[in-house]
Structure formats: structure tokens, C-alpha cells
Amino acid sequence: MKTSRPLKAISSNTVFGEGDVFVLFGELFGRGYATGLIDQAKAAGMTVIGITVGRPDENNKPRALTPEELAEAEANLGGKIINVPLRAGFELDAPEGTATPTDLVNEMTIKDWQDHKLDWDHVEICRDLGSNRFKGALSQVMEQLDTMIPTGKNVFFAHTMAGGIPRAKVFMAIANRIYKGRGARYMPSQSLIESDLGKLILKNFEEVTANSFGYLLEASKTLRDRVEAAGGEVRYTAYGYHGTRILIEDEYRWQTYTNYTQGYAKMALENFAESAWKDGVKATVFNCPEIRTNSSDVFAGIELSLLPLLQAFKKEGGGAWVDALWQKCEGMLKPEASLEEVLQKVSDYQTSEAMQPFYNFEAWPMPNSAEQVDKTVGTSQEIVDMHSERNVLVSDELSQHVVAATGMLMFGEASQPEGPALWLDHDLVAKRLIQEHGA
Ligand SMILES: NC(=O)c1ccc[n+]([C@@H]2O[C@H](COP(=O)([O-])OP(=O)(O)OC[C@H]3O[C@@H](n4cnc5c(N)ncnc54)[C@H](O)[C@@H]3O)[C@@H](O)[C@H]2O)c1
């Protein structure tokens, strides 16, 4: 792929309505992207069905939810949950009595991890165990789901799974250095990728973020055939990330958060959609803008890509809603600071020499550089310092709007999607929100 393929126009839902079924493939936690899509499905009158990643039992094996946990999760989702634990990845899988990949990572130390070698035959056994466990659970989920879809109804599968960071202290320390380490604490992201630890983590990311979508496409074939034979339609969407076009010096230009270690897995996710598409399945990965969620908080400075959305709102027409939003955001800053200054800081950052090598779509995901991390983390901290309260941030306000906008854009586009991988950039996000709130 040489360039991104932006979604060009706002489309409306023409397929889904009352009694059709929306299946959320990933558990809903808090403020994540999936909430935007679920709101659209509910507004269309669809029945929402969810799954769970389960909870760890005393041996760290995924177990089903207890009745109390299930009731809480269903209330949070606003729909039934199929209570079979669907945790992707193999970091906690191993043959009885042997070390799991997380145990192996725990044997590493902050001093020796770069030279620490792994037994790849053992890792492969764990990987097979993990994927077979997932596929086994998935076939039980599909059996139950099949009974919950009335004949003649349409089905919308929304994949949201992403993750795979092993819960090992040493990795948390390394991640902190890679995503936040400046000056003497800088750690090249490439050193992680080249180590056995990094190779293990990339495999696990691929399993959670990409292969889970492949398994879903495969395991739902029988159901898809049944729905289609009865005249119904089936769609699949997944959340991707592959950089975003945002306003830089008043032009929409592709940029990315660096280093996005999960990028290889996100490209594998796009490949699953592309090959399904070739088989006539309408599966689309929507590459979404950078926002702050529970999952993205580890990426220090990710919000620098989000702040220029404020300028996109003005470029796409502005209006009373946009003015009110600017005012609300301005109100989150210290009296001596202004949004203009915040945006100027972002612009200085984007146009700085250190950032120029990173506007390279084909080389994505590029390794970080010391100067780049220094600028990304430094600018982010300076902007947080301009706020009155460190936990009431302009980027959180904007994140909520992007969640709503992507929900509307994806739900509308899924009826007749243009292709298997589409980018939701700041121009369409701004346009859709202005349309929603009235210019
Ligand atoms: N936050 C961003 O900036 C951003 C940008 C573009 C795309 N996305 C994508 O949007 C999607 C939702 O992410 P989010 O940022 O809203 O955060 P989130 O924490 O709300 O969502 C993460 C999802 O992954 C699931 N998950 C995590 N580990 C899992 C595992 N081992 N097995 C099965 N499921 C697992 C969770 O249940 C949850 O549904 C992800 O695919 C993410 O990569 C996020």
C-alpha cells in the first residue's frame, strides 16, 4: 500500500433496523471506541449481543463471568452477553506444569532482556494452545449466537479486540522507557523489535488484534450462509489504526503516532478484511483517529494528533456548535493560556525537523528516534501543564466526539462499504459532527 484510502463521503444506513442483530466482538469497557457504534445500533432499533473476555481464575485461566459480573456487564452493554470466555492471545497458555509466555517474560530483568533468548518451540506450542482454546470457545459462542438470530434478520459484527501486552513487571518498565523515556531514559523501540521479547510480543499482538478477526470471519461462515440464504445481510467492521490525515499548516496530511509497535498486527488485520472482501464478504477495517482511551493511555503524546481537530471543525464550516466547543475547551485551560497557543505548540511540533522523517506512509510503523520521543513527550507534557486540571483535558473532550463521529460514519458506511480498508480522517469526522449538531 502506497497511500491511505480515506473515506470520501458520509453515507447513511440502508440495511439495519428494528430487530436486526448487532454483535460486539470484544468486551465493552468504559470510554472506548465501541460505544459510538453501539449507540448507532441501538438508535436503529437493533438487538445488541456481546461477548466477554472472561476473568482469570485462580490459575490464570479464563473463566466465564459470575452471575453478578454478567449482570453488571450486560447492564453496561445494554444487551445480552454470551458467557463463554473469549480471551485472545497466548501469553497465559502453556502445557500443564510448564512455563507460560508470561512466566518466561518474568524471568527477564531490566538489565538482561535484550540478550535473553526464548525457546521458540515451546512458544509455538503455547501459541497453538492459545489459538485452539480461542477457536474452541468461539465455536461455542457461534452455536449460541445462531439460536439468537431470527430468520430473515440482518447481522452486524463489530470487532474491537486489540491488545496482547503480557502482564509482566519487566515489560511495564520497558514499555515506560520506550513510550515515555526521554534523554538518558530514552530506549529505541527498534531494540524491542529485535529482541526475543519483542518478537514474542509481536506474535501475541497479531493473535489478539488480527487473528481474532480471521477466526471470527471463519467461524461465522455457517451463520453467514444461513442469514444470506434467508435474504438477510451480514457485515463485519473492525477498528484499525494506520495513521490519520489531520490538518497540518491548513492542509490535510497523513501523520502517525510513533512508535506504534502494534502496527504490524493492524496491517495483518487489514489483510484479513482484504482477503474476505475478495471472497465476496463485506468486511471493512476502519482506520480510526488517535484518541485517548484506557488502551491508548500508554502511548504518551498520542493526543497531539487529535488536537488539530479543533481547526478542522472551523475549516469544515464551523458554526454555533463549534464555537461552543472551542469555548468549552478554552475554559479547561489556565487563565494565562489559550487554545491558539496550544495549537501553535502542536504546529511547531509537527513542522519541527525531528518529526519530518515520520511522514512516510510506506515505512510505517517506523521506529522511534531520541529527538522524536523528546519532542512528542515534551510537547504533550507542556500542553497538559497549560490545563487548569490535569484530569480535565481538551483531548478527552475531543476523544468523546471522535468516538461518536466514527460510530456514525462506520454505521452509515457499513451498508454499502467502499472497500476493505478505509481511513476516517479529521475532515470527515469534523463534517459529520457539524452535520449532526447543525452548522
Ligand atoms: N485509541 C485509539 O487511539 C485508537 C485508534 C485507532 C484504532 N483503535 C482501535 O479501536 C479498538 C478499540 O480500542 P479502544 O482504544 O477504544 O480501547 P478499549 O480498551 O475500549 O478496547 C479494547 C478492546 O480489546 C478487547 N481486548 C483486549 N485484550 C483482549 C484479549 N486478550 N482478548 C480479547 N479481547 C481483548 C477489550 O475487551 C476491548 O473490547 C481497538 O481495536 C483499537 O486498536 C484505537
Written overview of the protein:
By secondary structure, this protein is of the alpha/beta class. The protein has a domain at 21-297 and 402-429: Rossmann fold (3-Layer(aba) Sandwich), CATH 3.40.50.720. It is built from 15 helices and 11 strands. The strands form 3 sheets. Strands 5-2-1-6-7-10-11 form a 7-stranded parallel sheet, with helices on both faces. Strands 3-4 form a two-stranded antiparallel sheet. A hairpin with a 5-residue loop joins strand 3 (55-56) and strand 4. Helix 1 crosses helix 14, helix 10 (309-315) packs across helix 15 and helix 14 packs across helix 15. It is globular, with a radius of gyration of 22 Å. The two termini are 36 Å apart. Bound molecules: nicotinamide-adenine-dinucleotide. Nicotinamide-adenine-dinucleotide binds next to loops.
Question: Any key phrases for this structure?
Answer:
46% helix; two-stranded antiparallel sheet; 439 residues; binds nicotinamide-adenine-dinucleotide; seven-stranded parallel beta sheet; single chain; alpha/beta; 15 helices; globular; Rossmann fold
Bound ligands, each once: nicotinamide-adenine-dinucleotide
CATH homologous superfamily caption of one domain:
NAD(P)-binding Rossmann-like Domain
The CATH C-level name of one domain is Alpha Beta
CATH architecture descriptor of one domain = 3-Layer(aba) Sandwich
